[in-house]
Amino acid sequence: MAARVMPWLLAAALGTSSVAAAQKAPDLALTPPMGWNSWNHHGCDIDEQLIRETADAMIANGMRDAGYVYVNLDDCWQGERDKDGFIQPDPKRFPSGMKALGDYLHQRGFKFGIYSDAGSKTCAGRAGSQGFENQDALQYARWGVDYLKYDWCNTGTGPAQRNPREAYATMRDALHRSGRPIVFSICEWGDNKPWEWAGEIGHLWRTTGDITNCWSCRIGHGSWESLGVLDIVDKQAGLRRHAGPGRWNDPDMMEVGNLPELAQNRSHFAMWAMLAAPLIAGTDVTGMSPQIAEVLTNPGIIAINQDKLGLQGFTWFKSPEIDVWARPLTGDRWAIAIVNRSAAARAHTIDWGREPLGDDLNQRFAKIGERHYRLIDAWSGKAIGDTAQPLSVRLAPFDNAVFVLEPRP
User: Fold this and answer.
1) Which among 74, 75, 151, 173 is annotated as catalytic?
2) What 3-state class would DSSP assign to 141?
3) % of the chain with per-residue pLDDT over 70
4) Which residues touch 389 (CB under 8 Å, ≥6 apart)?
5) What structural domains and CATH numbers belong to the chain?
6) What is the pTM of this model?
7) Residue 9 has what pLDDT?
8) Strands (E), 152-267
C-alpha cells in the first residue's frame, strides 16, 4: 500500500496537470466559526442517526438560523482504509456513508465538519492521517467536507515527535491540493505556541488543553489535565495580538449547556464572545433546555462575537471576584462584559469619566468625556442610559452583565 497518493493520481482527481503553491483556503472564517461538535457530550458514542437528529434539532431550536452552521464529527467516526489508503467510515455507525451524511447536512443549510489527527492514530486509537494526508484530504473533498479539526495525539515523543509546523503545513497543503475550500482547525493544545506560527497554516488554533464541564477546576489524566472555564480564560492573556479575521485563538469548544448553573453557562458564553472565540457548541442539542437555547442564540451576544472588526477583547479590570472585559467593535462601538467569578453576589461600578477606556495595541480609544455613549444591554437589547453617569451593577453568583457602547451623534 502506498503511503501517499501519487502525483498523477492527484492530477487526475483534480482534473489538472499542475497545482498552485499551497496555502490555507482564503476568505474562510472571516468571523469566528459557529457550529456544534460531538465530543464534549457524546465522546465516541456517535453515529449517523445522532448527527442527523442533532442537525434537525439545531433547526428547530433556532441555532442554525442564529449562525451555527458547522456540524462537526469528532473522533471515532473512522473505519478502515481501503487498498489504496483511502479512509472509510465505520460501516456500523455510518452505514449510509459520509457523502450521504454531508449531503443531508448541506440540504438543510449546514456545513459538514470532520476530525482527524496528525499522528499515526487518533486520540481514541482510530486511524490517524500521518503518511496519508493526500488521501484523506482528497477523500474529505469527495465527501463535501467543509471543516477539519486536526488533533495532535500519537505524534511521537521527545526527539522523535513530529514537528508541528511541518505536520500541520503538510495537511494544509493536502487540503489545498484537494481543490475544496475547507476551514482548518489546528488542535495542538497550545504546546508549541501555535499563535506564533499557525496563522499562515490554519484558520484557528487551540490555545490550551481540553476544556471540561466545570466553572473552575483542573482534572488530571496522568500526562495531561483538562481545565475548567475560568482556568482556560485566564490562559488567554497576551494572545490577542495574534487573532483577527481568518486566524483565531481557540480556547476550545464550549461547555454551554453542560455546566451545572445557568449563570455559569451565560458567563461562559459571554466570555467566549468577548474573546472572539469560535462558538462551537458541545452539548446535547437534542435534549437542550429552552433556557440554554436562549443563551446560545442570543442575538446581542452573538453580534459581539461576530463583529467584523475581529479584534479580540481584553481584561480592562480584574480582581479575585470580578473581571471586566472590553472589546472594540465596528462603528467606534465598544463591548463591555462584567463577570462575577465567585459563588457570592457581587456589586461593581464603572465610573466612565475616571477609568480611561482604550486599546493601545490597536490604537482605539473611547475618549469618554470628550464624547458620550449610549449603553445597550446586550442580553436584552434595551437601552439603559449613557456614559454620562457611572454604571453600577449587582451580579448573582457566577453571572454577568454585557453592554454595548454606541457613540451618540
Assistant:
1) 151
2) helix
3) 95
4) none
5) 7-305 (3.20.20.70), 314-407 (2.60.40.1180)
6) 0.94
7) 47
8) 183-186, 204-206, 218-220, 225-227, 248-250
Residue-wise pLDDT tens digits, 173-203 = 999 999 999 999 999 999 999 999 999 999 9
Kindly tell me if the per-residue pLDDT of 5 is higher than 50.
no
Task: Using alpha carbons, select from 28, 3, 25 the residue that is nearest to residue 179.
Answer: 25
d(CA 214, CA 255): 8
Coil, strand or helix at 290: helix
Average pLDDT of the segment spanning 22-34: 97
Q: Which residues are CB-contacts of 223 (< 8 A; sequence separation ≥ 6)?
A: none
| Cell 456540524 found at | 71
Structural contact between residues 274 and 253, judged by C-beta atoms closer than 8 angstroms: no
Q: Which cell is 384 given? A: 439603559
Cell numbers for 187? 488542535
> pLDDT digit string (tens) for 311-328?
999 999 999 999 999 999
Average pLDDT value over all residues in the chain: 94
Angstrom distance (rounded) from CA 220 to CA 227: 9
**pLDDT, tens digit, 9 for 90 and up, residues 147-167:** 999 999 999 999 999 999 999
**DSSP state, 263?**
H
At position 28, the amino acid (one-letter code) is L
DSSP class of residue 211 equals B
Grid cell, residue 241, equals 495580538
Sequence-distant (≥ 6) Cβ neighbours of residue 365 within 8 angstroms: 356, 357, 358, 359
In whole angstroms, what is the distance from residue 352 CA to residue 368 CA? 7
- Of 94, 68, 64, whose CA–CA distance to 80 is shortest? 94
Catalytic residue among 210, 231, 323, 359: 210
**Rounded Cα distance, 227 and 216, in Å:** 7
Q: What is the pLDDT of residue 20?
A: 63
| Catalytic annotation present for 210 | yes
